[in-house]
Amino acid sequence: xxxxxxxxxxxxxxxxxxxxxxxxxxxxxxxxxxxxxxxxxxxxxxxxxxxxxxxxxxxxxxxxxxxxxxxxxxxxxxxxxxxxxxxxxxxxxxxxxxxxxxxxxxxxxxxxxxxxxxxxxxxxxxxxxxxxxxxxxxxxxxxxxxxxxxxxxxxxxxxxxxxxxxxxxxxxxxxxxxxxxxxxxxxxxxxxxxxxxxxxxxxxxxxxxxxxxxxxxxxxxxxxxxxxxxxxxxxxxxxxxxxxxxxxxxxxxxxxxxxxxxxxxxxxxxxxxxxxxxxxxxxxxxxxxxxxxxxxxxxxxxxxxxxxxxxxxxxxxxxxxxxxxxxxxxxxxxxxxxxxxxxxxxxxxxxxxxxxxxxxxxxxxxxxxxxxxxxxxxxxxxxxxxxxxxxxxxxxxxxxxxxxxxxxxxxxxxxxxx
Length: 418
Prior knowledge:
Number of helices: 12
Strand order of the largest sheet: 5-4-1-2-3-8-7-6-9-10
Strand content: 15-25%
Number of strands: 10
Helix content: 40-55%
Largest sheet: 10 strands, mixed
C-alpha cells in the first residue's frame, strides 16, 4: 500500500518546507518541497499536492492508496478519468487503484482569480508559452530536482542565474522550488511518459493559496497522438476547486515555436534545452540540443543564440539516436523544415536517421510478433514439420516401389521392340 501521512509545514530561514512521510512497498522516506517563505502553502494545498503524487505512486505499485488528511472533492472525482487514461495508454506499466482510502473535504477555499503562474525551464516550449502570454502571466516557476538532479548544484546555479535574468528582462516574477519527490516517483513509473505532468501539478497545488492557475507548456501538438506525462487529455484533470491546471501551446510544433523565438532577446541570451547535465548550460551534442540547433540554423539565427555554438556539425546530426516515436516526431519536423528551406545536406542526414529508426523498429516489431506467438507458434511449427515429414516418407515409399518395378517394365519394353 502507498501510505502518505504526517504532512507538515515548517519554516526554515527564508524557505517553507512542506513534507510528508511516504511509504511504498519496499521503500519508506520523507518527501519534501522547499518553497520561498512568502508563498505560505496551507494544509489543504499540501494535502491536494500529495494526493496527486499518491495517485500516480499507487498506480505504479500495488494499487492501494491511504492518506490521513482530506483532499479536494474534484480531485477525487477526477481520479477515475485519470486512471482510465493512463492505464489505457500503459496497461502493462500501471494498474487501476483497487482501494483509495482518502476522505474528501466538504468545502474548498474559492479559486483565486487573476493570478497565473507558468512552469518555466528556459526551454523552447516554456519560452514559447511566455512569449505568447507575456501580459497574462504573473510569475514563472522552476522546480529544482525535476530535470536537474539535486546533487548537481553547479548546474542549478547556472540555471537559476539564467532564469532569474529572463525574469528580470521580461519584468515577471521568478519563483524557484526544490524537491526530492523524484526519488519516489522513479520507483513507480517513467518520468517522461507518466509522472512529470502530475509532478508539476503537485507544485501548482502547493502554490494555490497565491495562484489560481498553473500553466503547463505543451510538449507535443494536438495532432500528435503520443501518450505523455503532460497531455491535453490529462493536465486539466489535475485541477481542484482551488487550482485550475491549463495545458498550453499544443497548437504549434516544436519547430514553429523555435522559429517564433528567433527574434526574442531573452531567448537569444538564455535558451536552455539540454537534459544531459554535462556541466554545460547546453551540451550541444544531445538530441535536444542538436534538434534545436538544426531549427535555429534553418531559420538563419543560430549564431545569434549565445547559449549554443554558432554553427552545427553534420556529424552530430548523423549521431542522432531515436529511441521512441516522440523523438521521431521532432526529427520529422526538422526534416520537413529542411525540405521547405531547401537545405539538401541536413535533409539527407535527417532522412537517414529516420530510416534507420524505422527499420530497427520494424525488426523489433517482427521479433516481438514472433515471441508473442509463444508455445502456440511452436506447436504449429512442429505440426507443420510432422506433416512435411509424413509427405516425404510417403514419396520415398513410392520412389522405392518404382525403382523395384523399373527393371521388369524396362525388360518388357525391350522385348516388345525386338
